[in-house]
Design brief:
alpha/beta; TIM Barrel; 2 domains; two-stranded antiparallel sheet; 12 strands; globular
Length: 360
């Protein structure tokens, strides 16, 4: 496994000045910053267009950076057309870029709504999507909106549909850039999205939507969005869709944002105790959440190259907690053998919730 210290965070979301209605990032500054901090690759994903692709490609190659071409797109919400979803599409190769171009052209020619060129979900089933990687759109995507609305059964169904269409080229997207109530909403989404990811065997990606280069550029970006939407800055009723956090952050800032460090404190929602073991199938993880914290449940999961297993049971009272302990300590437990001895596992329950971390 790669060491955490050697991992470079790669920005996969950026709206440049070519995004028209939002985004004020200038491409030369974008690639220059990436080069300065040693970021080996970088993506440009303007909203509903690839106008900046050639300029970005040339600038990135000149800076010695691998360019990733993509697009942030609208996805039609067939139930409520005024509340479309979002997706992020990334190109793996030349064929992917050509297929992305065809999808965008079809949206502009056949499915504009209130000035938005919207893709349809069925196009991903019927059109050629070879060479394309799809990120779910975080809280703005179909799955994200269903989770936020509490429609978890529909969220499971939607995830199964996307996985069937794209197989291992579909990723659940996580973001942490909001403020106030929106940040709380993002955290609730992350909790559920991680559970879905484990249950369905879908990988996750932590992204950061860059709208401007420096935190001090926030008000300039607000001015551009006001011009595009027909508002003035002082209008208290105007929608505020962006935060001052949406600037170019380096790898260290992103690792801190998603708490990536040598002690992997959370691999799945609610877990702060992780055990890694190795056998002939590869590396596995088993995790237990904090007891008596939300979500109030005990979970175990195992991930390897061949399959993924996940189970959980809710703990609502002391009796159920005792049952959970007995199950974990049982010699017949399907995974207790991966702990050195029962005392190692029992110590988990005796420690304070902030100490339930096992160094890998």
């Amino acid at each position: 496994m790669p060491q955490i210290d050697n991992i470079h965070y790669i920005h996969l979301r950026c709206h440049s000045e070519f995004s028209i209605s939002d985004g004020i990032v200038r491409i030369p500054e974008y690639t220059k910053k990436a080069k300065e901090i040693g970021m080996p690759a970088l993506a440009l994903t303007d909203l509903s267009n690839t106008f900046g692709a050639v300029k970005f490609y040339k600038s990135a190659i000149e800076a010695g950076i691998k360019p990733i071409i993509g697009c942030d797109v609208w996805l039609e919400n067939s139930v409520t057309r005024d509340q479309p979803y979002r997706l992020l599409i990334l190109c793996q190769n030349k064929n992917g870029f050509l297929n992305l171009s065809e999808l965008l052209s079809k949206a502009y020619l056949e499915n504009q709504y209130r000035g938005r060129a919207e893709l349809k979900k069925e196009w991903f089933e019927n059109e050629n999507t070879v060479g394309l990687i799809i990120l779910s759109g975080a809280t703005s995507g179909e799955i994200g909106q269903l989770i936020i609305q509490g429609k978890l059964d529909q969220a499971h169904s939607a995830l199964r549909e996307w996985k069937n269409i794209l197989s291992d080229r579909f990723y659940l997207e996580l973001q942490r850039h909001g403020e106030g109530n929106y940040r709380q909403q993002q955290e609730r989404y992350i909790d559920q999205a991680l559970h879905l990811a484990v249950e369905h065997g879908v990988p996750v990606v932590a992204s950061h939507p860059i709208q401007f280069m420096a935190e001090s550029d926030f008000m300039a970006h607000e001015a551009k969005t006001c011009i595009a939407d027909g508002y003035v800055l002082g209008d208290q009723r105007r929608p505020k869709l962006y935060s001052s956090e949406q600037y170019f952050k380096d790898s260290g800032q992103m690792q801190e944002l998603f708490k990536i460090n040598k002690s992997i404190k959370a691999v799945i929602s609610g877990h702060n105790h992780v055990r890694r073991y190795r056998n002939k199938d590869g590396i596995h993880y088993i995790g237990l959440p904090s007891i008596n914290t939300w979500p109030n449940m005990y979970s175990t999961f195992s991930v390897n190259s061949k399959n993924l297993k996940y189970q959980h049971m809710f703990i609502n009272n002391d009796n159920q907690l005792e049952k959970a302990k007995n199950k974990l300590f049982s010699r017949n437990s399907s995974w207790s053998k991966y702990f050195a001895n029962s005392s190692e596992l029992k110590s988990y329950f005796s420690k304070g919730k902030n100490q339930r971390i096992l160094e890998l």
